[in-house]
Specification:
The chain is mainly alpha-helical. The chain has a single domain, classed as MFS general substrate transporter like domains (Growth Hormone, Chain: A, Up-down Bundle). The chain has 16 helices and no strands. Helix 2 (40-86) crosses helix 10, helix 5 (150-165) runs antiparallel to helix 12 (296-321) and helix 10 (245-254) packs across helix 15. Mean pLDDT is 83; it is low at 458-464.
Length: 464
């Protein structure tokens, strides 16, 4: 059975992202623990998303229209590879510049991917007379099924490397009292002495960075060779036009005039908050603090596997349940997890618990990723480039805030902030759904009214 061209391209872009984020994701989850001196790891992550915010303001529409989705994806993927190269010798002079390059490429990459998936979904729906929203939802589900498994492979690589090349830290009961919700930046020196800085040779860093760089480059080559370009005509037409950077910058900001976009800002930011907390704070304050850096990858594999499986599941389920029940479910899962982490005191004897939280977090994140992306694609179909640029912009704001204050406030406060942002975001999202419902009802009433008027006219004419 032949695979349709649109579906084939969804698979190609998904596996390209799988390879790229196997490298980047693996490095991201160990940054806060691996490069903990003076907060270098978290600082580099914060810089990535700060640069991504700047990039979101003007780069995506220009790059997508000038180069097309395919070549925007390829060039942006190259930016990610530079960060892997920077980790060969992690200092402020190598990680920060490569973090800036990665951030600048991040917004065009994700905007082009979202635009490409939406184009493929609409092409397929038009070809086979399907509901476009359902096809787009399904394609996002396929993408995240494949893409989110990158967390499994990237973290498996890092854990195996650290397990066989590093020595174990010295974890005491006194040391454990500084882990979990009780963890604060003031205790970092104690944690570093016992666990985080367990000895590993420079060859370990070279091996880790070398493998990740090779995997990232293979993803770039794969997409460049096998991904089709569906928007050649639009690109050629755009190249003949005069390019005005300010126009596209304003287009991104102008999209904020849509009150639905304004209302979705907090929920979109929460996506950055929750991912930032898991990658930067949970890995450091819970896993590394209580178990050691060699367990970070193994625990995060649960997140990746859960996220991957449920991305496909929820992508298909949304067709029958709609998005509202899924968002409600994700909210409950995150609420329960946050409250539990506030109360839990991590201990090595409770090893299974360390894996449960990433598993639940991955389940909820599967909803935030698939349904929020699809929501933007459905609500803002006519302005999808600007909409997805805003999506990356506000998600990046969440990442920046989460990583920026990571070196200054305690985990307990971070969890409370996470709780507040989640509840606020979902209340405002509920308003968006109410507005959409009211709009649909109004359209139906108008059609009924018009139909009734036509019937009345015919009856009146018949009487005469």
């Amino acid at each position: 059975m032949l695979i349709e061209k649109e579906t084939k391209n969804i698979i190609v872009v998904s596996f390209g992202f799988l390879l790229l984020f196997t490298a980047y994701g693996g490095l991201q989850t160990v940054q806060s623990s691996l490069n903990s001196d003076e907060g270098l790891g978290l600082a580099s992550l914060s810089v990535i998303y700060a640069a991504l915010i700047i990039s979101s303001m003007f780069l995506p529409p220009i790059m997508i229209k000038y180069f097309g989705c395919k070549w925007t994806i390829v060039m942006s993927m190259c930016c990610y590879v530079t960060f892997s190269i920077g980790n060969f010798y992690p200092t402020w002079y190598t990680l920060i510049p490569t973090a800036v390059i990665l951030g600048l490429g991040g917004a065009p990459l994700w905007s082009a991917k979202c635009t490409y998936l939406t184009i493929c979904g609409n092409r397929y729906a038009a070809k086979f007379n399907k509901v476009a929203a359902n096809v787009v939802n399904h394609y996002f589900g396929i993408f995240f099924l494949i893409f989110q498994s990158s967390a499994v492979w990237g973290n498996l690589m890092s854990s195996l490397i650290f397990q066989y090349t590093s020595s174990n830290g010295n974890i005491t009961d006194e040391h454990l009292s500084y882990c979990g919700a009780a963890n604060c930046p003031a205790y970092d020196s104690i944690i570093n002495e016992n666990v985080t800085q367990a000895s590993y040779p420079a060859s370990t860093i070279y091996l880790l960075s070398g493998i990740y760089t090779g995997v990232g480059i293979s993803g770039v080559i794969f997409v460049a060779i096998f991904l089709d370009q569906f928007d050649k005509k639009e690109v050629n037409e755009f190249k003949t036009q005069k390019i005005n950077v300010c126009t596209h910058f304003v287009a991104t900001l102008t999209h904020l005039k849509d009150k639905r976009q304004i209302l979705l800002i907090v929920m979109t930011m929460y996506s950055g908050f929750e991912q930032g907390f898991l990658a930067g704070d949970y890995t450091k304050a819970y896993i590394t603090c209580a178990l050691g850096i060699q367990y970070v990858g193994y625990c995060m594999i649960c997140f990746g596997a859960s996220n991957s499986i449920f991305s496909l599941t929820f992508g298909k389920l949304a067709k029958y349940t709609g998005r509202i029940p899924l968002f409600f479910f994700a909210t409950l899962v995150n609420l329960a997890s946050i409250i539990s982490m506030l109360l839990w005191k991590p201990h090595p004897d409770q090893l299974p618990v360390f894996f449960v939280f990433p598993l639940l977090w991955g389940m909820a994140d599967a909803v935030w990723q698939t349904q929020t992306n699809a929501l933007y694609g459905v609500l803002f179909l006519e302005h999808k480039e600007a909409a997805f640029a805003n999506y990356r912009l506000w998600e990046s704001v969440g990442f920046v805030i989460a990583f920026a204050y990571a070196n200054f406030i305690c985990i307990k406060i971070k969890l409370i902030i996470l709780l507040i942002v989640l509840l606020t975001g979902m209340i405002l999202y509920g308003v968006v759904e109410y507005l959409e419902y009211s709009k649909v009802r109004q359209e139906i009433d108008e059609k009924v009214h018009e139909s009734g008027s036509e019937t009345h006219t015919i009856i009146s004419e018949t009487k005469f």
